[in-house]
């Protein structure tokens, strides 16, 4: 169960959002509180979010998408026995008329050898199986986030599409610790953020390198925030695998991060000193071999610049040479017209070094 949407006062049923059909989906159900029986409301495919309409809870607004549908919004009855619906909006495909890359979703085994992990792999529109392509891993990897769904284009971002059509294989993997797979799945990373996640991401790269069209010597990685931590950690822990990395707003030392998040997943530094030591990327600064660009915003109040600056000092001490770029006046994300510059900066770095 992902969310309690509301309550139908006529049928005495609880309306919930759930991943019962698939971890890649969010669907709506009416639950009979007397016997626990669940009945699906609406389309069984795609990603759904809803808002109950009215005090009685007899209708809801369903906001949905699927791999082939950007957005469809419907007014729907919450009574599964009397299903009625009216379409309010159907969004047009913004990519209509363009040559689009192909998107593949599948599973591989995690580093524990037993857990299924979902991946998304994007190939160029003019893909030639006889060629060898460089690959970029786009990573987040942290709690309460999911990269691959059965929503619009399987949650591929515009930059993923852009880079695929520039001749890169784009790959993302939801490692253990990410969202919508249950508590045991999330707890695999407790008190050691970034370590087990990294092992799973390496399994994803092993899968990539097993594909005959992937150039295993040209693997890049990019992510922001927790994904920036993951990018930096992968470049340092697996320097023989990753040639180029671009890390945005990275967490370097969990001891610097906000207590609400950091201690929820890492425990306190006093209770988990070894965990904080092992996940502190300053201690790995001497391992850097490839090209690493760190991007930080000078007004970042989520992942404060102390993270990046302390890492740069560790690299100076270790005689390693990452690159640094600062976006003035921005907080934890580069927004507005400067975001175009950000993505061009990232793209140029991969084109130069990968």
Structural class: alpha/beta
What share of residues is helical?
10-25%
| CATH class annotation of the largest domain | Alpha Beta
**H and E string:** EEEEEEEEEEEHEHHEHEHHEHEH
Pfam families: DPPIV_N, Peptidase_S9
InterPro entries: AB_hydrolase_fold, Peptidase_S9_cat, Peptidase_S9B_N, Serine_Prot_S9B/DPPIV
Domain Dipeptidylpeptidase IV N-terminal: 1-70
GO molecular function: dipeptidyl-peptidase activity; serine-type peptidase activity
Structure, described:
One of its GO terms (biological process) is proteolysis. With 354 residues, the chain is an alpha/beta fold. It folds into 2 domains: 3-90; 102-353, 3-Layer(aba) Sandwich (Rossmann fold), CATH 3.40.50.1820. It is built from 8 helices and 16 strands. The strands form 3 sheets. The chain has an 8-stranded mixed β-sheet, with helices on both faces. The radius of gyration is 22 Å and the shape is globular.
Summarize the structure.
The chain has helices spanning 158-165, 183-187, 195-209, 226-237, 259-266, 273-279, 306-318, 338-353, and strands at residues 3-8, 13-18, 27-32, 38-41, 47-53, 59-66, 69-77, 85-90, 102-109, 116-123, 133-138, 169-173, 214-224, 244-248, 291-297, 323-327. The protein is α/β, with parallel strands linked by helices.
SSE topology sketch:
Elements: E1 3-8, E2 13-18, E3 27-32, E4 38-41, E5 47-53, E6 59-66, E7 69-77, E8 85-90, E9 102-109, E10 116-123, E11 133-138, H1 158-165, E12 169-173, H2 183-187, H3 195-209, E13 214-224, H4 226-237, E14 244-248, H5 259-266, H6 273-279, E15 291-297, H7 306-318, E16 323-327, H8 338-353
Parallel strand pairs: 11-12, 11-13, 13-14, 14-15, 15-16
Antiparallel strand pairs: 1-2, 2-3, 3-4, 5-6, 6-7, 7-8, 9-10, 10-12
Helix pairs in contact: 3-4
């Amino acid at each position: 169960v992902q969310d309690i949407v509301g309550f139908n006062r006529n049928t005495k049923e609880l309306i919930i959002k759930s991943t019962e059909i698939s971890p890649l989906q969010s669907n709506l159900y009416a639950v009979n509180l007397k016997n626990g029986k669940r009945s699906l409301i609406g389309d069984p495919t795609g990603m759904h979010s809803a808002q109950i309409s009215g005090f009685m809870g007899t209708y809801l607004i369903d906001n949905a998408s699927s791999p082939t549908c950007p957005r469809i919004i419907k007014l729907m009855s919450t009574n599964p026995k009397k299903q009625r619906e009216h379409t309010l909006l159907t969004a047009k495909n913004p990519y209509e008329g363009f040559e689009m890359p192909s998107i593949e979703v599948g599973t591989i085994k995690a580093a524990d050898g037993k857990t299924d992990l979902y991946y998304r792999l994007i190939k160029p529109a003019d893909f030639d199986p006889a060629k060898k392509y460089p690959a970029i891993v786009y990573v987040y990897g942290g709690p309460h986030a999911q990269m691959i769904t059965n929503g619009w284009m399987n949650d591929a971002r515009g930059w993923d599409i852009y880079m695929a059509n520039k001749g890169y294989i784009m790959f993302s993997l939801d490692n253990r610790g990410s969202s919508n797979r249950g508590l045991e799945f999330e707890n695999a990373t407790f008190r050691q953020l970034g370590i087990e996640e990294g092992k799973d991401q390496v399994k994803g790269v092993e899968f990539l390198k097993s594909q005959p069209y992937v150039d295993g010597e040209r693997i890049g990685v990019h992510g922001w925030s927790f994904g920036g931590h993951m990018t930096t950690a992968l470049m340092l822990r697996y320097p023989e695998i990753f040639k180029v990395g671009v890390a945005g707003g990275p967490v370097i030392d969990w001891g610097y991060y906000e207590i609400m998040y950091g201690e929820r997943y890492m425990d306190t530094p006093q209770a988990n000193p070894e965990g904080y030591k092992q996940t502190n990327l300053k201690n790995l600064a001497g391992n850097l071999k490839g090209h690493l660009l760190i991007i930080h915003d000078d007004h970042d109040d989520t992942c404060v610049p102390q993270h990046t600056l302390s890492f740069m000092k560790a690299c100076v001490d270790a005689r390693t040479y990452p690159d640094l770029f600062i976006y003035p006046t921005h907080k934890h994300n580069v927004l507005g017209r400067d975001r175009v510059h950000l993505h061009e900066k990232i793209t140029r770095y991969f084109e130069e070094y990968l």
